[in-house]
């Protein structure tokens, strides 16, 4: 059997749909428990991996630059911790705001946390090594951290994951199945966004028709956490984007025309900026608008209130 290494994604599905399958042999890849393998008979040709050189200085194992968190990210990470409790099962999505929660101590003070996620950002494997994330209270796959990809951490982190039964990698189709996500009580999904409008629609893929990202697992985890007993879906983002005269509020009365809605208003839950937390689930449209204005940047609140009055207090 051949291992897919630190990431499974949809590789097995793609292999079984392909006419010809090529596989690169890389001695640096890891083996894990879970469904992280394919039989050699399903591969047509092998080529040997040729190293391109050492990882550049100041980067992680994926070649990403190591940067420091700003005050905005630190403040948001602290707010996230206010919504957590012992025994929660966590998911953290890719994003410059959400991923900081994994390294800024957001989860450090809690016990018996679980992990069922798509990716495994930097900082999560050390929490598993410390026993903070141990999955002991998970209803589904207890005592096991589950994802479809891991990496970006240290060499020691990867060595810890290798053939460790406490960590399993599965296909993206399996990890992102909302039924599997919701099978765990107290499922807490933490994801970044580009913009949120007064209705609570979360946009994480585009600004107007200009696509800047994909949905990834965000929609699946929003649904899964919504269906989970005690679940919470947390959207994190800085209050503004841009600088100077081009600075704009990420909280808007309406999404720009053509913007893709990643999470519909019917399942949006908590929204956090550096100015606080607002809870949208179960709120009226007017309550949502006022709550979001309250965590918008102060420079934009007066204008946002005027727009809210036009929309909801005619």
Please, could you describe this protein's structure?
The protein is of the alpha/beta class and 314 residues long. Helix content is 24%, strand content 19%. It is built from nine helices and 20 strands. The chain has a six-stranded mixed β-sheet, with helices on both faces. Strands 3-9-8 form a three-stranded parallel β-sheet, with no helix packed on it. The chain has a three-stranded mixed β-sheet with strand order 12-11-18, with helices on one face. A hairpin with a 2-residue loop joins strand 13 and strand 14. The longest helix is centred in the C-terminal third of the chain and has 15 residues. It is globular. The N and C termini lie far apart (66 Å). The model has no long low-confidence stretch (mean pLDDT 95).
Concise account of the structure shown:
With 314 residues, this protein is of the alpha/beta class. The chain is built from nine helices and 20 strands.
Which strand order does the major sheet show? 7-6-10-15-19-20
Helical content band: 10-25%
Mean pLDDT: 95
Are there runs of 5+ residues with pLDDT below 50, and where? none
Largest sheet, in brief, is: 6 strands, mixed
Order of helices and strands: EHEEEEHEEHEHEHHEEEEEHEEEEEEHH
How many helices in DSSP terms?
Answer: 9
Q: Give the quaternary arrangement of the chains.
A: single chain
Shape: globular
How many DSSP E strands? Answer: 20
The end-to-end span amounts to 66 Å
Q: How does the helix and strand content classify structurally?
A: alpha/beta
């Amino acid at each position: 059997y051949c291992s897919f290494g630190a990431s499974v994604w949809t590789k097995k599905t793609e292999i079984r749909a392909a006419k010809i399958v090529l596989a690169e042999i890389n001695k640096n890849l890891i083996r894990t428990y879970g469904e992280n393998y394919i039989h050699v008979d399903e591969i047509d040709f092998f080529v040997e991996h040729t190293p391109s050189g050492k990882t550049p200085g100041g980067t992680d194992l994926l070649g990403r630059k190591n940067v420091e968190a700003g005050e905005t990210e630190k403040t948001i990470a602290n707010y996230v911790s206010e919504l957590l409790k012992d025994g929660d099962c966590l998911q953290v999505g890719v994003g410059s705001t959400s991923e900081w929660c994994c390294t800024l101590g957001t989860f450090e003070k809690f016990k018996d946390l679980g992990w069922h996620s798509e990716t495994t950002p930097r900082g999560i494997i050390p929490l598993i090594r410390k026993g903070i994330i141990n999955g002991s209270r998970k209803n589904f796959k207890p005592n096991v951290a589950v994802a479809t990809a891991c990496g970006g951490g240290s060499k020691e982190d990867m060595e810890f994951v290798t053939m460790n039964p406490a960590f399993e990698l599965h296909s993206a189709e399996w990890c992102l199945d909302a039924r599997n996500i919701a099978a765990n009580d107290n499922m807490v999904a933490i994801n970044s966004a580009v913009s949120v409008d007064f209705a609570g629609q979360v946009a994480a893929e585009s600004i107007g028709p200009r696509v800047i990202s994909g949905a990834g697992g965000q929609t699946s985890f929003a649904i899964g956490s919504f269906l989970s007993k005690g679940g919470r879906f947390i959207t994190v983002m800085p209050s503004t984007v841009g600088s100077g005269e081009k600075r704009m509020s990420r909280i808007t009365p309406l999404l720009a025309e053509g913007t893709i809605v990643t999470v519909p208003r019917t399942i949006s839950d908590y929204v956090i900026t550096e100015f606080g937390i607002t809870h949208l689930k179960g709120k009226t449209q007017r309550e949502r608008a006022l709550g979001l204005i309250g965590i918008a940047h102060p420079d934009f609140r007066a204008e946002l209130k005027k727009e809210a009055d036009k929309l909801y207090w005619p």
